[in-house]
Amino acid sequence: MFELLGITPQGLVAQLLVGLINGSFYAMLSLGLAIIFGLLNIINFSHGAQYMLGAFAAWIGATQLGAWIGNPEFSIGYWPALVLSPLLIGASGIVIERTMLRRLYHLDPLYGLLLTFGLALVIEGMFRHWYGISGENYEVPESLTGAFRLEGIGLALPKYRLWVVAASLAVCFASWVFIERTKLGAYLRAGTENPALLQAFGVNVPLLITAAYGYGVALAAFAGVLAAPIFQVSPLMGSNLIIVVFAVVVIGGMGSIMGSIVTGIGLGLIEGLTKVFYAQASDVVVFVIMAIVLLLRPAGLFGRET
Amino acid sequence: MPEAHAPGTEYLRVTDLHAFYGEAHILHGMDFVVNRGECVSLLGRNGAGRTTTLRAILGLTGRRSGSIMLNGREAIGMASHRIARLGVGYCPEERGIYASLSAEENLLLPPVVASGGMSLEALYAMFPNLAERRASQGSRLSGGEQQMLAIARVLRTGARLLLLDEITEGLAPVIVEKLGEVIRRLREADYTIVLVEQNFRFAMPLADRHYVVERGRVAEVVGKGEVEGRMEMLHEYLGV
């Protein structure tokens, strides 16, 4: 049957894995966007830049930091970077929320969109100025080099890519459990619906908003570190990805947590399958689906119709 | 706050309260006092400023000025969440049940602001319907169930001052009767209550004092015993 369609099972599995990896990144990034949109009512256009910052922070820690502090031997490895980079970039997000976004909440959400879009341009511009657009390599950590060989179909599954899928699924699932099953998660859902009343009950909503933005940004940075060994670490890596992620958010439904995870992974897989069956369409398939969903269900697949 | 209040101690004093929504000046110097353990009502026509008064006490309006003394603390400059922590429980007019949370999640949502709140068991005993519907989404509850939930929700937190906005609005007489019984029990339990009511017949037997609100200020004060004698004035103000 495979021969009939002119594709090999190896090709199919390989593309499904690529799709799953892309889907993992879509899921993590759209999850962060969904959390931020829910509480801040702002579409965080700097999300791609923050993802890029996460990757650059890891790369700088591994290759540049030693020279900067005059100790070329010093470098921060992949595993510490996986924790430190999201913390650092998340903290920078908190500063942005406290000093800039906070001033815009009483205005039309469009201003938040413009501010975050401007920030993305500034951040990406700075990194383009410093590092150019050619992209930097980031080594796969030693413990995850190599591949699992599936002898049956003669296919090698790179360990690092499997790790990326597993880590992203774990983070998405943990975030979902946190939001759906904990008290703080209930505050988050309530704050999405009616923040003024939640605050009148005694919850420090401004702090909740800051934390939500920090978490969303940290998720983007985490995705960035995961991506660093797979893609080139480049100032443009975020803007390439984020356009698809916005389409994912629209398809899943703005602000829906589960929706963004499921849609992210699902669309990654669909993209992968399209590469197998009709490769020419693989770059547009997400946008075609977006157009169809917008026509049939404007609130998105998981969004609440209002 | 452990200090014992003698009956008659002032719990809420609103003095010359002005409040704005954007440029709209809604409250023009509200003045009223509620003592500990009292129930007072704010009566008046729609748009007189009663709901805005409750919202201004909680810091939910725009700019406001004047004085709001809550249990001995000045609350006029405080953020909303700090005011709640002084022991204020709020039932908004639109009930404010969160659609994306289950009934029980709604019930458990407001943080405990003081000790002495009712337990979940006691609340389910008081509102048996809610026990049956505990797993239902907030959006699936009937109007009466939502109102019960909105009241139950603030009784868990240990708040001693309850600001109840139009709790009888749009509800069947049998549920209104049940709510009246709940308010009576809360009074016996020494809660301090501010009722904003359109339904004068509901508020009349419950409140110690009625403040008639007109154009953002208190126009008349009517004690419980004076109601009969001042019916004509009340009719005129309330248009009933």
Can you offer a commentary on this structure?
- The complex is a heterodimer of chains A (306) and B (240).
- With 306 residues, chain A is mainly α.
- Helices cover 69% and strands 3% of the residues of chain A.
- Chain A has twelve helices and two strands; from the N terminus they run H-H-H-H-H-E-E-H-H-H-H-H-H-H.
- In chain A, strands 1-2 form a two-stranded antiparallel sheet.
- In chain A, helix 1 runs antiparallel to helix 11 and helix 10 crosses helix 11.
- In chain A, 46% of the residues are buried.
- The mean pLDDT of chain A is 92.
- Chain B is of the alpha/beta class and 240 residues long.
- Chain B has a domain of 113 residues: 3-Layer(aba) Sandwich (Rossmann fold), CATH 3.40.50.
- In chain B, 30% of the residues lie in helices and 27% in strands.
- Chain B contains nine helices and ten strands.
- In chain B, the strands form two sheets. A six-stranded mixed β-sheet of chain B has the order 6-7-8-3-9-10, with helices on both faces.
- Chain B starts with 9 loop residues before the first strand and ends with a helix.
- Chains A and B meet through helix 7 and helix 8 of A and helix 2 of B.
User: Mind telling me the CATH superfamily name of the domain at 10-81 and 200-240 in chain B?
Assistant: P-loop containing nucleotide triphosphate hydrolases
Element order of chain B: H for helix, E for strand? EEEHEEHEHHHHEHEHEEH
Hey, which two chains have the biggest interface?
Answer: A-B, 19 and 24 residues
User: CATH topology of the domain at 10-81 and 200-240 in chain B, which one?
Assistant: Rossmann fold
Strand order of the largest sheet of chain B: 6-7-8-3-9-10
Number of domains of chain A: 1
User: In which range does the helix fraction of chain B lie?
Assistant: 25-40%
Distance separating the two termini of chain B: 42 Å
Number of helices of chain B: 9
Strand neighbour order, sheet with most strands of chain A: 1-2
